[in-house]
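Reply to dn_fold:

You asked what the input looked like. This is it:
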Amino acid sequence: MFPTKFAPSLFGLILSGLMSLLVSGISTGGPSALPMASPACGSGPG
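and this is what came back:
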């Protein structure tokens, strides 16, 4: 599909794009985007 010489730079471009989407999704979603229970919410054990 793409020439082999473009593979490392294309991989880096796709990976950085995915990471920025992940970080922006977490930062815009806030604490509600994370499905983990945090002790600050009072939903921890005990």
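The longest helix spans residues 7-29.
Hope that clears it up.
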